[in-house]
């Protein structure tokens, strides 16, 4: 049974073309299910109209919501007339990411799709603060859709962590591969590749320890990662030609391989670090994301709990 059937599309309020909606419609055609076209809007100037009564301010807000709802209906008209089930919902909310996540929680959406903007001079994708909040805090998978057609024969590249340093790495790897293979089978038999990056020899160790042999160290680390990758691919009966173990930083290896394969989407695990943890430890996932030139699907571990709640909003920044 298809996993992604209750889709929420975050509508971009600044343009008529909606790539995320197109991708959602494609998924519904392949998997079945339904779409909610969702737009949180807020205009501070309406809150500043102190000369108006509360009822008049409410009426003004409702007028804006009605206008935006009619505008989204225009964008969806072709899909609606062809029988695609799309619900349109516009809410007044001053924190778009919070409104989206609360909608996900309240209505148990299993996938959020949002357009990722592209830099004018480069092919890389630009992520807004709302994008980052969704990638860190949304409990369901988030698909950032680049404004370009899916490459002919486009592949899915799953980034796995083969170091096994944390207890959540192995189950998250299995979840990433399982969900990607299931989706690829249901959507056009997309080819799935796995990639893992291993670190180069730390320069300070090589300098401080005269007897240290970098080549032996590199071989040992690579061997560990190859064994871990072999175990993972055998679990899913994947051919070795679809697995890649490369030396270097993940934020360099993964985007480079995605470009080489002409991947349509990179699938990443996001553990959703926020606050001091994200600031001081850093988040490899986010470094990788910053270098991507294709779609991104970010998936959380099974035990992830969003800091955003229905009652209190975001518990921490």
- Residue share in helices? 40-55%
Say how many strands there are.
13
The chain-level mean pLDDT equals 85
- What's the total helix number? 11
Query: Which second-level CATH architecture of the largest domain applies?
Result: 3-Layer(aba) Sandwich
Instruction: Give the ordered list of helices and strands.
Output: EHEHHEHEEHEEHEHHEHEHHEEE
Query: How many independent structural domains?
Result: 2
What structural class do helix, strand and pairing data support? alpha/beta
Low-confidence stretches: 275-282
> How would you describe the shape?
elongated
Determine the CATH topology of the largest domain. Answer: Rossmann fold
Oligomer: single chain
Distance between the termini: 36 Å
Biggest sheet layout: 11 strands, mixed
Function: Required for resistance to DNA-damaging agents.
Organism: Acerihabitans arboris
Protein name: Universal stress protein E
Main location: cytoplasm
């Amino acid at each position: 049974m298809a996993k992604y059937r209750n889709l929420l599309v975050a509508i971009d309020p600044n343009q008529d073309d909606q790539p995320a909606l197109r991708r959602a419609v494609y998924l519904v055609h392949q998997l079945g299910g339904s779409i909610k076209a969702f737009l949180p809007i807020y205009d501070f100037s309406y809150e500043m109209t102190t000369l108006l009564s509360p009822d008049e301010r409410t009426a003004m807000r409702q007028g804006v919501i009605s206008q935006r709802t009619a505008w989204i209906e225009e964008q969806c008209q072709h899909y609606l007339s062809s029988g695609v089930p799309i619900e349109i919902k516009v809410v007044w909310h001053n924190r778009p990411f919070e409104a989206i996540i609360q909608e996900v929680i309240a209505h148990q959406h299993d996938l959020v799709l949002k357009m990722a903007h592209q830099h004018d001079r480069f092919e890389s994708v630009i992520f807004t603060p709302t994008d980052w909040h969704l990638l860190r805090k949304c409990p369901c998978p988030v698909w950032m859709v680049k404004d370009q057609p899916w490459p002919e024969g486009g592949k899915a590249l799953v980034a796995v962590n083969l170091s096994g340093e944390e207890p959540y790495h192995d189950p998250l790897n299995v979840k990433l591969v399982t969900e990607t293979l299931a989706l690829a089978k249901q959507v056009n038999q997309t080819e799935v590749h796995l990639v893992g990056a291993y670190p180069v020899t730390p320069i300070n160790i090589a300098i401080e320890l005269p007897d240290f042999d970098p080549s032996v160290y590199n071989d040992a680390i690579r061997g560990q990662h190859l064994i871990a990758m072999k175990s993972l691919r055998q679990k899913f009966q994947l051919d070795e030609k679809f697995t890649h173990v490369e030396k270097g930083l993940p934020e360099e290896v993964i985007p480079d391989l995605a470009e080489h394969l002409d991947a349509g989407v990179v699938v990443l695990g996001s553990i959703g670090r926020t606050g001091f943890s994200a600031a001081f430890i850093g988040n490899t996932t986010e470094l990788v994301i910053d270098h991507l030139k294709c779609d991104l699907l970010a998936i959380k571990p099974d035990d992830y709990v969003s800091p955003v709640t229905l009652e209190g909003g975001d518990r921490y920044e």
